[in-house]
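User: Structure please.
Assistant: Input sequence and predicted structure:
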Amino acid sequence: MSNLGGCTNTGELFWRLEDKQVASLLLDGWFRESSPGSINEFANMKSILMGSPGIGKSTLLCVMAFHLVFKHKKNVLLYWQLTNVQEENCLLYLGYEENKIVYFTVKRCKSDRAVNFYEELGNRQGFSNVWLMLDGFRYEDIPEGVQTFRMLATSQQVSLKSQEQTDAYCILLPCWSKKDLLSMGSLIYKFTPEDMEGRFYYSGGSVREFTYATWEHIRRVMDNAISDVADYSKLLSTTSSTFSDGSQGGLLCRTFVEKTNDRSQYLARRHWQQMIDSEYAVSGLSVRLKSEALLRIYTRAKNAGHGALARCAFDIYLHRLATDNRLKLFKAEYDLPERRKSDQPRHFKVEQVALRNGGAFCSGTSSDFERDLVAWRDEETFTYWYPWCDDFPNIDSIVKLASGSGKKNNVAYLHFTIARKHDINEKRLEKMNEIFFPDHVKNAGETDAPVFIAVCPDEESCRKFVLESQPEVLAAKQTCQVFVGYYQEAAFAGRPTYREMHWPFCSYRLQNLTFSH
């Protein structure tokens, strides 16, 4: 079956809860008898199995075909539309002749030939006794003569007209969770934990990409998908197609159900959630995804327990808000938990941080940043900086503040966090102060001291957040004021941002782009 494009290369299956739910729904629609108190609304209807590319729809279709033959004694004709270099469309018949199992395959089977086989079998056995199953076809492009199928598996969007909804229904096969992919990779492919983490970083919830031979292969496929997106505004749009549009860009958006244990959600589109779950893809699309899309990715990843993806989306989302001058920050002075009794509430007096509006600058790495920060510090038109790397220690960005004390304004070192706890490094803050608050500036007494703010997703998280360890926090408080805070998205008033007007391409960060306001 694998050389026909319909099953796994290993011949082994990892049976997910999602597969079980979909198979149960299909069998229920095909075979359950209606009763006065329980009508089978899908009886005698076509089943359209939808889902993102590369998640196992073809495999499930084959499983259902074998189940129909060996459990229910049906005659099944499968017709695949393939895109492999070695093969074109393929046809497989599996059924009974004089109570004996017979089968035949036809490779490079054009549609007119498939129609002839179907008609011949139907005329000989009765069309109601031949179950036609299609894979890989667009619903709108199914060849005439094979449109009376029982099941279609497709990655393409299917919009049934009102009159068609009495004849067919759609069911979603959701993408893979990280937990299931790691279990499958360990049990079947014997991947190491480190290897699987790297694979999932690139692939997200696609089992096909996850099981490619090398990381480089997965990355190359994802690079092609990112560069192939024609309209970035439609990625994760609530009004655009949920599935592939026929381009490589369809590989990026994955579709899930809200609750995998609720069978009804597999049939109701209002419960289908779309997201980009490849951390590599989210990073590569960082300047092109809308802030609303980034927030949806963060929320979905957090709820699904994908910590790394949630952190990635959260960081990029806050960079986006700050770059577009839409970030509102609130802070409260951080008090050590050890200095409070267990029954005492945290001291929490919140005030808004006065941020300066201006342009954003992305430059520097964890080992080479001093000259970039000095240049940014001295350039008045730039008010927000963040590094050209994802491993910059202790902080994620720096923002210039508007002074309210009568002194010269200085900066806030921002650390974005979705974790319950995080450490703080006094030595790194001292290194930053050598640039922004050197001794001669400090001794002159004319400039506000820098501040450190750990930025949480919301006020509740902010109240529970803990900096570690106590000695480091006490030492950091000698270097600058230490705050814990949270963000809000400010309504943007005025003309469009530079990005909205020009929308430049970048593979991970914003590069050294200036943003005029």
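The CA atoms of residues 162 and 168 lie 10 Å apart.
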